[in-house]
Amino acid sequence: MLYRSLGRTGLQVSEIGYGCASWWGKPTFSEATAVGLVHAAIDLGVTFLDTGASYSAGEAEPRLGRALKGRDVSRLVVATKAGTFHAGGGRIGRNFSPAAVAASAERSLRNLGLDVLPLLQLHGPAVSELTDELLAALGDLKARGLVRALGVNSFDPAVIEHVVDLPQFDAVMVDYNVLRPEREPLIARAAAAGKGVLAGMALAMGHTGLKVAKIRGPQDLWYAARGLVRHREEVRRGARFGFLHRQPDMTGSQAALAYVLASPHVSCAVIGTTRPAHLYENAAASGMALPPALMARIRKAQAG
Ligand SMILES: NC(=O)c1ccc[n+]([C@@H]2O[C@H](COP(=O)([O-])OP(=O)(O)OC[C@H]3O[C@@H](n4cnc5c(N)ncnc54)[C@H](OP(=O)(O)O)[C@@H]3O)[C@@H](O)[C@H]2O)c1
Questions:
Q1: Residues 48, 12: contact at Cβ < 8 Å?
Q2: Per-residue confidence (pLDDT) for residue 162, from 0 to 100
Q3: The predicted structure's pLDDT at residue 237
Q4: What is the predicted pLDDT for the residue at 232?
Q5: pLDDT at 33
Q6: Is 205 strand, coil or helix?
Q7: For the chain, which terminal residue's Cβ has fewer other Cβ atoms within 10 angstroms, N or C?
Q8: From ligand 1's centre to the CA of 140, what distance in Å?
Q9: What is the number of domains present in the chain?
Q10: CATH code of the domain containing 77
Q11: How far apart, in whole angstroms, are the C-alpha atoms of residue 78 and residue 68?
Q12: What distance in Å separates the CA atoms of residue 264 and residue 256, rounded to the nearest whole number?
């Protein structure tokens, strides 16, 4: 596993991060398998673990806390998110008030069993929600030693553009993957401003090879439904990238990750998986170079 600096935070993160979200956090997914995946990721050298207060209907964060119990967390960069919460009935609520964000961070510390949150990210705030009062409350969390670094996770370029100019934030998490080359100027600007850049959705939720058509378990049905209901654009664009899965020396997922990591501006590609074989495959993508001919083919597919 190779490691990269997370902007100017002084933190080093593994190029491949593990996303503790979605199906992984659901009680219907075996706790033993979920915990085993986190342990395997750590054993493979993964040091960046990403979760959120509202992930998996609020179940992901405490599950990650149980997985980390008794482990050496000193090298880990555990990232969580605040500003959204599980509102019941499958709904996600939003509250970016300073008091709610501070309370969420303190709850996350308890859920994760940590003394300090290495990275706290605001989860999809609007520009108008990034008030001076909220920025002051975030600064206070840092001053109290509860949070080491601050970030914003947003898939709205206007929000990231705004955050890049705010000195309070150390990192941004954006949707960067083969389907989103339009993010490249933005992540270059963020990196130039000293922000750590995290590629969330680094595998485009698995939609780079018509994953929606491959159903082997209940999680595949769930991911396919999510794609068809909420991420049709990814499913549509992803259909053009079937060639990634027909490369001689790497799998399709490794090719997609090598593309993300070919950007010197990206600190870490974060991927969620429920399958140990996929975890090993993803971890092995660290250090894989994307052949120039394959990059050219990706550029052609991106152009349409
Ligand atoms: N998606 C979002 O809206 C979002 C938003 C903010 C932050 N994030 C962060 O970014 C992380 C990653 O996001 P994501 O959307 O890629 O993850 P995700 O929502 O967890 O989905 C990953 C998909 O890719 C598949 N996959 C993973 N490795 C694979 C492999 N080697 N071969 C084939 N399929 C593979 C997974 O299926 P298997 O389980 O079968 O491997 C799953 O269907 C999240 O876990 C979260 O921490 C995501």
A1: no
A2: 98
A3: 85
A4: 83
A5: 98
A6: helix
A7: C
A8: 33
A9: 1
A10: 3.20.20.100
A11: 10
A12: 15
Q: What is the pLDDT of residue 213?
A: 60
Tokens for 146? 């509860």
Ligand 1 pocket, mutate which of 175, 198, 205, 231 (most atoms under 8 A from CB): 205
Phi and psi, residue 72, nearest 5°: -75, 110
Distance 217 CA to ligand 1 centre (A): 15
Q: Which two tokens stand for residue 8?
A: 């100017």
Task: State how far the Cα of 204 lies from the Cα of 64, in Å rounded to an integer.
Answer: 23
User: Could you give the residue ranges of the DSSP H alpha helices within the chain?
Assistant: 31-43, 60-68, 98-112, 132-143, 157-164, 184-192, 218-230, 232-238, 252-261, 276-283, 292-303
Residue in the structure block whose two tokens are 């008091």: 99
Note the pLDDT of residue 210: 54
* Domain span at 62: 3-303
Burial (CB count within 10 angstroms: exposed 0-12, middle 13-18, buried 19+), residue 303: exposed
Amino acid at 252: G
Averages of pLDDT over each 10 residues, the chain, 304 residues: 98 98 96 98 98 97 98 97 94 97 98 98 98 98 98 97 98 97 98 98 78 73 76 84 92 95 98 96 97 97 92
Q: Could you give the angle at the alpha carbon of 266 between the alpha carbons of 124 and 17, nearest 5°? A: 75
d(Cα 281, Cα 250) in Å, to the nearest integer? Answer: 9
Confidence (pLDDT) at 133: 98
* Residue 219 beta carbon below 6 angstroms from any ligand 1 atom: yes
Ligand 1: which of 274, 278, 288 to mutate, judged by most atoms within 8 Å of the beta carbon?
A: 278
As a whole number of angstroms, the distance between CA 69 and CA 47 comes to 15
pLDDT at 67: 98
